[in-house]
Amino acid sequence: MAEAEVSSRESRWSLKGMTALVTGGTRGIGFAIVEELAGFGAAVHTCSRTETKLDECIKEWERKGFRVTGSVCDVSCQTQRDELIEKVSSTFQGKLNILVNNAATVVSKDSTEVTAEDMANTLGTNVEASYNLCQLAHPLLKASGNGSIVFISSVAAVVAFAYTYHLWSI
């Protein structure tokens, strides 16, 4: 990006002083969201189920000068969600401006092959976890005086695919 474009963008939009939590921020769209928020000046905390990947990404963001911290967290686990929000509260002094519910899972197999466990894991990760994170983050969002919640979804919600589910997790 040209230097004039960067300064023009910065003069129009800044997230300096803002804080954000992005779930599933070490791959795909979550990674891009972390980079955009941090690029606009926000302090960002993200999570991943994989410590190695989280550490790699944090080092990359540090090299770029971004203020990004992270936690290992499987959002499908209630106790890990509780710990994540405690860490975010501690990191951001009890305030959060932006919660991005991005972490998700899908199962790739014929609908007739999807098990009750597959369905429970999908709903637990994609629906229950996001809803619960909103509940847990509510006091932090309210304390910021300027809280926003963003839900990331898939085009699969409106477009049919050959397989109903795809076993893949962020």
Derived from helix and strand composition plus strand pairing, the structural class reads alpha/beta
Largest sheet: 5 strands, parallel
The number of distinct helices, counting runs of at least 4 residues, comes to 5
Estimated helix fraction: 40-55%
Would you count the extended β strands for me? Answer: 7
The second-level CATH architecture is 3-Layer(aba) Sandwich
Arithmetic mean of pLDDT: 90
Terminal CA distance reads 28 Å
User: Quick one: CATH class?
Assistant: Alpha Beta
Our count of domains comes out at 1
Shape: globular
Strand and helix order: HEHEHEHEEHEE
Oligomerization: single chain
Record the strand order, biggest sheet. 3-2-1-4-6
User: Nearest-angstrom radius of gyration?
Assistant: 17 Å
Task: Pick out the low-confidence regions.
Answer: 164-170
Describe the structure.
- This protein has 170 residues and is α/β, with parallel strands linked by helices.
- It has 5 helices and 7 strands.
- It has a single domain, classed as NAD(P)-binding Rossmann-like Domain (Rossmann fold).
- The strands form 2 sheets. It has a 5-stranded parallel β-sheet, with helices on both faces. A two-stranded antiparallel sheet has the order 5-7.
- Helix 4 packs parallel to helix 5.
Offer a few descriptive terms.
single chain, 170 residues, alpha/beta, Rossmann fold, 5-stranded parallel β-sheet, two-stranded antiparallel ribbon, 5 helices, disordered C terminus, transmembrane helix, NADP, SDR_fam, TROPINONE REDUCTASE, oxidoreductase activity
